[in-house]
Specification:
Largest sheet: 5 strands, antiparallel
Helix content: 40-55%
Distance between the termini: 119 Å
Order of helices and strands: HEHEHHHHHHHHHHHEHEEEEHH
Number of strands: 7
Number of helices: 16
Structural class: alpha+beta
């Protein structure tokens, strides 16, 4: 039998090893010069302001980076997870919200988040989170500086008349102020109030220490008084229940409601249905909506005043308006029954031919922005106002309360059409002074069209009618 021996395994020649090494180095250099994010064309030297960061070596943070990048292993294996080599891969600064990575684990830029596969609304949310984070960091730094300044303002006593323990003077880190500063910094400023130096903290019987403690107590009492006054001043400037209490004039200016009690009564109706998980309290959402209705303030100004985003202001306003409509209109806009209407009819309606009056009706218009659609723009344009408007039919009782209000119609719609199509006629009964089709009578002012002058009877009736019709103009105003 012939036996064959296998040739021993030999390493490739040195020229092949050098070629493989050269190819690996070229690939690594290529990846260093380019961003490894899918769809990103940034290259080193293309834009000098762009920075390139290595994939972190920390296992947990590296896994989060790889998950955020969402790069496939290859074009053939798009479902397999990409594992970066030890060297040769960089990520550019365009994939971070602020344009650079952060080493703070609480920062949104600790992990890259701006990529082509991320939708635009999500990118805007992430930018808002970074703004919130930066504001909080700035507030923390300001509070640290305040504590440092307070510590400097109260220097430790250096009198040689007061021995401390074994005769050695305490170091800077051993003073109560410095220790409190260190604890406040480590606890992320959980407490902003400096500790009060009592007699049991610095026990000394010398006259110098006694005077020093007395001056510190007086200064602490002055700071407490100033703190109370500042809190009261802040409460007066912030819109809340306490700042508006017993201030009916301010309530009327901001909301249009006459008194604080009426403001809170309406608030009790709508409060359970407002957004609880919001950056504003329910009362602040309620005040935001009333201030917009009363003074027509812009969303940008309200966003600046309440320190929130203008988009959030728009969403809160729309939600509050819907809640007010669903809660208040069914309970406050009520059609009265005939008997109670006749018993409480005002004296001005009892004289003349208005004793059967049920309601006073009129249409009013509200300006709005020009709609983008041509059909809606044509339907909303009012030739009477020479502007795009929305029109409503409103009816009030002779007593002055609103008893009917229609849905909105385009400003081009005629008053007659709205009256016929708004379900107003279904509330009328035979004998009411309103519309003939319902066996009722409609009282309207006389017109001079086709006439040179009104008859004396028509003129007198128009005067009486105008004196009563003015009430609905006041309600609309």
């Amino acid at each position: 039998m012939t036996s064959y021996r296998h040739a021993p395994l030999r390493a490739p020649p040195f020229w092949q090893q050098s070629a493989q090494l050269t190819a690996a180095v070229k690939e690594a250099k290529t990846m260093v010069d380019n961003c490894c994010a899918p769809g990103c064309t940034n290259r080193r030297g293309k834009n000098k302001s762009t920075s390139f960061y290595r994939i972190p070596k920390d296992v947990e943070r590296q896994a989060k980076w790889i998950s955020a990048i969402k790069r496939a292993r290859s074009k053939q294996n798009k479902t397999e997870r990409w594992e970066p080599p030890a060297v040769g891969f960089r990520l550019c600064s365009d994939h971070f919200i602020s344009g650079r990575k952060s080493e703070n684990p609480l920062s949104p830029d600790f992990i890259p988040s701006i990529f082509n596969h991320v939708p635009s609304p999500e990118k805007r949310k992430r930018k808002m989170r970074l703004d919130v984070f930066n504001r909080r960091q700035k507030a923390k730094l300001q509070r640290i500086e305040q504590i440092k300044l307070s510590a400097i303002a109260i220097p430790p006593s250096q009198s040689t008349d007061c021995p401390q323990g074994n005769g050695r003077t305490p170091t800077a880190d051993q003073t109560p102020i410095a220790q409190h500063l260190k604890d406040s910094t480590n606890d992320e400023l959980g407490n902003d109030v400096l500790p009060v130096l009592h007699d049991n903290v610095l026990s000394c019987s010398s006259e110098t220490c006694g005077k020093r403690l007395q001056s510190l107590e007086q200064e602490c009492q002055a700071l407490r008084t100033e703190n109370v006054l500042l809190k009261e001043k802040i409460n007066n400037t912030v819109l809340n229940e306490m700042s508006l209490h017993s201030d009916d004039k301010r309530v009327n200016i901001l909301t249009g409601l006459p008194t604080y009690s009426i403001l809170m009564t309406v608030f009790q109706f709508v409060a359970p249905f407002l957004k609880l998980k919001s950056c504003l309290t329910c009362f602040q959402q309620y005040m935001l909506m009333l201030m917009k209705l009363r003074m027509n303030l812009s969303f940008d100004f309200l966003a600046f005043y309440f320190k929130i985003d203008s988009t959030t202001v728009s969403k809160l306003f729309k939600h509050c308006i819907s809640v007010m409509h669903c809660r208040l209109v069914p309970s406050l806009v009520v059609w009265p029954d005939r008997e109670s209407l006749r018993q409480s009819l005002p004296y001005a309606f009892r004289i003349g031919s208005f004793e059967k009056t049920v309601c006073i009706i009129d249409c009013f218009e509200i300006f709005l922005e020009k709609p983008s659609r041509l059909l809606a723009s044509a339907q909303c344009y009012s030739s009477y106002k020479s502007h795009h408007t929305v029109k409503y039919l409103i009816a009030i009782c002779p007593q002055g309360s609103i008893c009917f209000i229609s849905s909105g119609w385009g400003g081009r719609t005629s008053d007659k059409y709205i009256t016929e199509q708004s379900n107003f006629l279904s509330h009328l009964l035979p004998g009411d002074v309103s519309i003939q089709r319902c066996q009722a009578e409609l009282k309207i002012p006389a017109f001079t069209r086709g006439k040179k002058q009104l008859d004396p009877v028509d003129l007198e009736n128009t005067r009486c009618l105008a004196s009563l019709r003015i009430h609905i103009e006041r309600v609309i105003g």
